[in-house]
Amino acid sequence: AQSVTQLGSHVSVSEGALVLLRCNYSSSVPPYLFWYVQYPNKGLQLLLKYTSAATLVKGINGFEAEFKKSETSFHLTKPSAHMSDAAEYFCAVSDPPGNKLVFGAGTILRVKS
Amino acid sequence: GAGVSQSPSNKVTEKGKDVELRCDPISGHTALYWYRQRLGQGLEFLIYFQGNSAPDKSGLPSDRFSAERTGESVSTLTIQRTQQEDSAVYLCASSYNAPPGEQFFGPGTRLTVL
Questions:
Q1: Over its length of 114 residues, how does chain B's per-residue pLDDT go in tens digits?
Q2: Residue A58 CB: number of other CB atoms within 10 A?
């Protein structure tokens, strides 16, 4: 069965600093991987997705993630944090055949001014 | 709007009462999913619909939970004899069935069982 581990339930960075949110997955098949963001009292919004094309995936709001098969990782990065990036971030893997999403526990990102 | 909608946005009920949660998916999306997000926890899969059929109900926590979908559109999640542990945000998502199955989420229904 697919599973996702997100290291660090809370990450705090200064405004302008690098954002790195870690995600490791376990999958018995080539995975489809996703990062979603959830702003307070809002639904989940897709940031980016890996679908076995390019290993470096660019998403919205300046985020990107790199798929590393050898490390079974799909870490999310952003070069320069903005106050508006404060939210909870979820990594997920698609579980065939119905493509239900298996989510990590989430990482809350705090951005300090 | 073109997004997934859910109603009600908030529901407060007493223990033992039944509740119905509604999801309107994006038009043309054949797949529909229900997830649950309890406070301080990640998202748990509940049930998946392909068209009006539910080939995967593995996440439903008990026989108090049921769901249906009609017209390959609207879905209703019903919780009978609610318990306090049912308190959570219930999220609905829809997608085209073809992989990678990018899912579009609704805003959720916050259920509080007193």
A1: 589 999 999 999 999 999 999 999 999 999 999 999 998 788 999 999 999 999 999 999 999 999 999 998 999 999 999 999 999 999 999 998 666 678 999 999 999 999
A2: 11
Measured over the CA atoms of residue B73, residue B74, residue B80 and residue B83, the dihedral's sign is positive
What are the b/e assignments for B56-82, b being 16+ CB within 10 Å? beebbeeeebebebeebbebebebeeb
Residue in A99, A102, A107, A108 to test binding to B, most B beta-carbons within 10 Å: A99
Taking contacts as CB-CB distances below 8 angstroms, the residues of chain B near A44 are 43, 91, 93, 105
Instruction: Identify whether B100 is preceded by a cis peptide bond (ω within 30 of 0).
Output: yes
| Token couple for A77 | 């990065």
Q: Alpha-carbon distance A38 to A44, whole Å?
A: 5
CB A34 within 8 A of CB A46: yes
Rg (CA), chain A: 13
* Closest CB to B56 among A36, A100, A106: A100
Which of A34, A100, A103 to mutate to probe the B interface, most B CBs <10 Å? Answer: A100
Cβ-Cβ contacts under 8 Å, A101 against chain B: 33, 35, 43, 45, 93, 103
Q: The tokens of B6 are what?
A: 């859910």
